[in-house]
Design a protein that fits this description.
Tetracycline Repressor, domain 2; Arc Repressor Mutant, subunit A; 2 domains
C-alpha cells in the first residue's frame, strides 16, 4: 500500500505542475505553486524531484497515462494498422490542445543534452509496451510483412512520431500536428503491410 500512496503523491505533483505550466507557463510557475496546487509538501516535492527542471522529464509519464486510457478504447478497431493510427491521432490531438509547445520543445531539447536517462526512449514505458503488443497482434494476424521484425516496426513508428513532433516544434506550430500525421504515418505503416 505505501508504494501506491507514493506513486499517487508523485503523480499529484506531476499533474499539478503540468496544469500550472499550461496555465501560467513554465517560467512563471514556482515550486511553491506546484506544492500548493498538488496539496503536498515541499519535502514531498524534493523527495521526488531535485527541482522544477526535473519535471520536464515527467511529460513522458503523462503521455503514458494517455496511452493507458486509449488502450481501453481499442477494442472497436479491427486491425493493428487502425489501432496504431488511432493512438497516434489521439495523442497528437492531446499534444496540440493540452501541452504548451515550448514545454514540449524543452523536453526534446533536454533529452538531446541529457547525460543520464532519456525517458522518451525507455522501452519499459507503457507507450512501447502497447506499441509492441499491437504490432505483435498484427504480425500474428498476418497484417505485417514476415521479413520485418516487431522491433523494427515499433522503432520506425516511434521515430516517425518523434520526427513529426520535433518538426512541429521547430516550425513553431505552423502546421497541424494531427493533420500532418494523418498524411505521414499511414505512408510509413503501409510499407510494413502485406499486400
Amino acid at each position: 500500500m505505501p508504494k501506491k500512496d507514493s506513486r499517487n503523491t508523485r503523480m499529484k505533483i506531476v499533474n499539478a505542475a503540468w496544469a500550472l505550466f499550461y496555465k501560467y507557463g513554465y517560467e512563471n510557475t514556482t515550486v511553491e505553486d506546484i506544492v500548493y496546487e498538488s496539496a503536498t509538501s515541499r519535502g514531498s516535492f524534493y523527495h521526488y524531484f531535485k527541482g522544477k527542471d526535473e519535471l520536464l522529464y515527467t511529460l513522458a509519464s503523462l503521455f503514458d497515462e494517455k496511452y493507458e486510457q486509449l488502450e481501453n478504447s481499442l477494442d472497436g478497431k479491427d486491425s493493428a494498422y487502425e489501432k496504431l493510427l488511432y493512438l497516434n491521432k489521439e495523442l497528437f490531438i492531446m499534444l496540440e490542445n493540452s501541452v504548451p509547445m515550448d514545454l514540449l520543445a524543452r523536453l526534446y531539447s533536454a533529452q538531446l543534452t541529457a547525460s543520464g536517462d532519456r525517458n522518451l526512449l525507455d522501452r519499459n514505458r507503457t507507450y512501447y509496451k502497447l506499441l509492441r503488443k499491437i504490432v505483435v497482434e498484427g504480425k500474428e494476424n498476418g497484417e505485417f510483412k514476415d521479413e520485418i521484425s516487431v522491433n523494427e516496426i515499433v522503432r520506425a513508428y516511434a521515430m516517425c512520431e518523434r520526427a513529426l513532433i520535433s518538426d512541429w516544434c521547430l516550425s513553431n506550430g505552423e502546421f497541424s500536428l494531427s493533420r500532418e500525421s494523418v498524411i505521414t504515418l499511414p505512408r510509413l505503416l503501409q510499407g510494413f503491410l502485406k499486400q
